[in-house]
Amino acid sequence: MSAESATATQKTLADLLDFVDWSGVECLNQSTSHSLANALKQGYREDEGLNLESDADEQLLIYIPFTQVIKLHSIAINGPEDEGPKTVKLYANREHMGFSNVNDFPPSDTAVLTPENLQGKPVVLKYVKFQNVRSLTIFVEDNQSGSDVTKIQKIFLYGTTVETTDMKGLKKIEDH
């Protein structure tokens, strides 16, 4: 993909924050003083002094439901070089997961974050796996240095709403 087409694609993608159903958002193993809102909510995630931190160990399990069906294109997770997340497993439309059963399900995609990713470079996801997403579960399995605390400064979800789908494509489906 050329730099021009990558830029054009990026312009059509929206930050999906407006479509998060905040009443259902959950984060397991978050520090009470450094919660998910610090990394995900508008206004909070822009504050460099705020971050999400894990509590008992390095793992985090984040559940994000959406108010409408979305297509998820890419995700950006910013964090410090040493305590930022490393292995991140993403699950589309998988509800009620816990640390006890997270490994029972194959992830829709797995990302191993690099220092560039932690500075804000998005990870492009397997497109076919994230077409009709009603919820996203993010399992942070470990961090860059193997320390007990994982820190996330910002989470960005890039994609589109399904409503922006080409209507001609929908018509063909209805004809059958």
UniProtKB/TrEMBL annotation:
<dbReference type="Pfam" id="PF06201">
    <property type="entry name" value="PITH"/>
</dbReference>
<protein>
    <recommendedName>
        <fullName>PITH domain-containing protein</fullName>
    </recommendedName>
</protein>
<dbReference type="InterPro" id="IPR008979">
    <property type="entry name" value="Galactose-bd-like_sf"/>
</dbReference>
<dbReference type="InterPro" id="IPR037047">
    <property type="entry name" value="PITH_dom_sf"/>
</dbReference>
<feature type="domain" description="PITH">
    <location>
        <begin position="5"/>
        <end position="176"/>
    </location>
</feature>
<comment type="similarity">
    <text>Belongs to the PITHD1 family.</text>
</comment>
<dbReference type="InterPro" id="IPR045099">
    <property type="entry name" value="PITH1-like"/>
</dbReference>
<dbReference type="InterPro" id="IPR010400">
    <property type="entry name" value="PITH_dom"/>
</dbReference>
<dbReference type="GO" id="GO:0005737">
    <property type="term" value="C:cytoplasm"/>
</dbReference>
